[in-house]
Amino acid sequence: MRPSSRIIFLGILTGLLSSCGGDTRDTHPQTQVVSAPAPQQAEIVIDGFRSDFVVKRSAQGIVLSEKNTSIEKSYSGFPIFRFKDSIVDTAMVTKLQGLTDKDVNALLELYVAFFNRVPDSQGLSYWASKLKQGVTIDQIAASFYEAAVLYPELTGYTTGMSNTAFIQIIYRNVLGRQTVDQAGLDYWNAELSSGRSSRARLVWTILNAAHTFKNDVTYGAVADLLDRKIEVARYVAIDEGVSYTSDAENIRKGMEIAKAVTPTDSSTAKLAVGFSDVGVQAKLLSLSVDTSNQFLTVAGEQGKLGYLYNGNYYLKGATYTLYTKNFGKNALYEYEVATAGWNKAEALKNLNAFGARGFYFYGTYLFGDGTKSLFIHNKSDPRVFKYRLEDVYSTSKETLTKLESLGKDGYQFTGSFIFSDGTVGIYVDENANGATYQYKLLPGSGSVDSEVSRLNELGAQGFRFAGSIAQSDGIFTIYQKRSTDTQSYRYAALANVDDYSGWLSQLNSQGNRGYRFLMSSAFGVGATYSTANIYVQGDSIRHSPFGF
Description:
By secondary structure, the protein is of the alpha+beta class. The chain is built from 16 helices and 22 strands.
């Protein structure tokens, strides 16, 4: 909440809530901290949107990197950046020094409880300074309560609202519950009606009660939801230091972000901030190469900028090459090609020779000078790769048995390829700290919606899409889970776009949300046939033939 003359005094009403129900918060005025005036913080105006840049923090200062050009500029100290759409205070961690985690969390919880929003950095900085000056959490809380009443159109609070209506809002904001059980409603109504609690004090009481449900079989989700909201609030206002360009936008975005939090997921809410320094930037380059050497020249130039080759695509009469860059990863890529046409023995020998140098097999491609095998090396990745070739099987049962057997030995399936003496499945040991792999092989879904629903269901369990395979008993989708991974994956389907500007806009819009392009695919047959672009969030390391 960004303070204005109308609500400066509002920093005082909600902390009354802390002395009820066994709350141990200190409601006495704190000793005022007297220190030297803080140095003037530099403000830098940036002609661009926050999503166009990556902000890198270090002990020495800030490095601002433009995504499209990779141009970097260093700033000493920790300035405030004023972008076209937001304000970023890179000194928030410093500004909160001297406060305990309990104090900071209490401030964050006030925003959630009274407004169901995450704070902006300017508002949080203001109230943190008040705490340091000796204003109590109770007094700040009281201010939030008064502010909530002043803005009924935003908060739902009114001066004449019934106790029941007040309790319903607190249940919704703090507990994530749209209805109040009758026993709970009767109990809290009695507390308010008897005068044993004020409305402000009741907020603290319910906040404290929510935390006590942690790991409870029945109500554990209540505590999980509150914890997730505080996690996101900390991410927005402290880790990223974000405020928006007006009070109204701070409130609107803060509510939008908080609404996206669930008891089990905070990633969607973090993406709602509007940018991601671990997102994906896409380039579509007009295909002007013919020979493999020409390709290596262009790909090498892009690789030095951190862009990875993602294939060629035909759009309205022209062919374009897609390159993507994962932000937050200092990856640089180099490319090599080798003459294709190997038999299986030659293939295994060459694959392992390249793998021993850290080059990953990316498939075979037709150039003007013939078909070539493409290998890509992530220069920041010290791993080497060991390959093995296995016969392919005609039935899904046989294939799944083979996948599971090799997965237990640490081998990941990368795809089936045709060599001069037959078709084989290529498996790779990624030297991934003893990782093993678990597989699911499921029949293809009949529609875009059903496929994405299944992708997200399995992605939440840690399974990633690993390709499709034709078997005698149907077309099957392969899902793969690495034992050392703790992350989950989310998928989204968008309409195919067949023009340059439209698809590039879609690629980067999804990229700024942390989603990278996975594939363009067809679903269903006959009347149910449709196509869609599939994007994935969380799977930033791509492997052949579905990425690297």
